[in-house]
Task: inverse folding
């Protein structure tokens, strides 16, 4: 519909340009006599009106190219045209002023009717185009709002997934090639104690024994010494038990050598 309105604007521009040139030629008396039309008096008024019509024709032609001005300019030019057509018909047909001959009367009436029809058509088309542009703008704004709402919802879901995927407290993500391990608090009660050696009864430092070279061999020797000490202690305890048993049974004891 907008291309049709552009075509109407071009026609309006040509009509306005023709009228403007016609009024600019007001001093040309022989032309008005040949067309059997009344000459504008004074001439200055006719030429000034012709310049105004040429400027309006230029605006109409520019609006047919510039889409932002098309609807507004078509409405303005349409109103100017149909009002001019009504004015011509009222004065020339109704009031017969100025009094024209047969050819001049026919030309004036036809011109007024054509201008009236083109003006009304331009106004209707301009209103329809403006209404369609308004609806298109509303639809575009609605689509933009829906897109913005969808983007906001997507961002909210993404943030929620990131919060759910985040590690719990006390677990630290890997940084670079090494992962940060949480420190163990060994000062609190109920925490895991260091392992204790069965031979010596002293706590064993796992880091020191594991880090020292030959730690396994040293530990084996320590375990062997512990077993020997345990065997000696068992023998001594057995000897004491046998001595106590003999003392209870009343067997003679060897003489005490002082």
Result:
């Amino acid at each position: 519909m907008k291309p049709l309105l552009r075509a109407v604007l071009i026609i309006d521009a040509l009509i306005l340009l023709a009228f403007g040139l016609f009024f600019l030629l007001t001093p040309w008396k022989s032309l008005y006599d040949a067309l059997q039309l009344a000459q504008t008096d004074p001439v200055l008024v006719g030429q000034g009106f012709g310049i105004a019509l040429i400027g309006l024709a230029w605006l109409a032609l520019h609006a047919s190219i510039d889409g932002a001005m098309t609807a507004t300019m078509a409405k303005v030019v349409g109103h100017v045209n149909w009002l001019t057509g009504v004015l011509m018909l009222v004065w020339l047909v109704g009031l017969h002023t100025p009094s024209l001959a047969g050819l001049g009367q026919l030309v004036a009436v036809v011109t007024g009717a054509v201008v009236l029809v083109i003006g009304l058509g331009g106004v209707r088309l301009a209103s329809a185009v403006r209404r369609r542009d308004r609806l298109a703008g509303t639809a575009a704004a609605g689509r933009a709002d829906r897109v913005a709402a969808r983007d906001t919802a997507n961002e909210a879901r993404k943030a929620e997934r990131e919060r759910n995927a985040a590690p719990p407290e006390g677990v630290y993500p890997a940084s670079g090639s090494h992962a940060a391990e949480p420190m163990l608090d060994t000062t609190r009660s109920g925490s895991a104690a260091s392992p204790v050696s069965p031979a010596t009864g002293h706590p064993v430092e796992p880091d020191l024994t594991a880090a020292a070279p030959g730690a396994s061999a040293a530990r084996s020797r320590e375990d062997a010494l512990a077993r020997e000490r345990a065997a000696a202690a068992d023998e001594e305890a057995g000897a004491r038990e046998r001595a106590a048993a003999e003392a209870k049974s009343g067997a003679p004891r060897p003489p005490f050598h002082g």
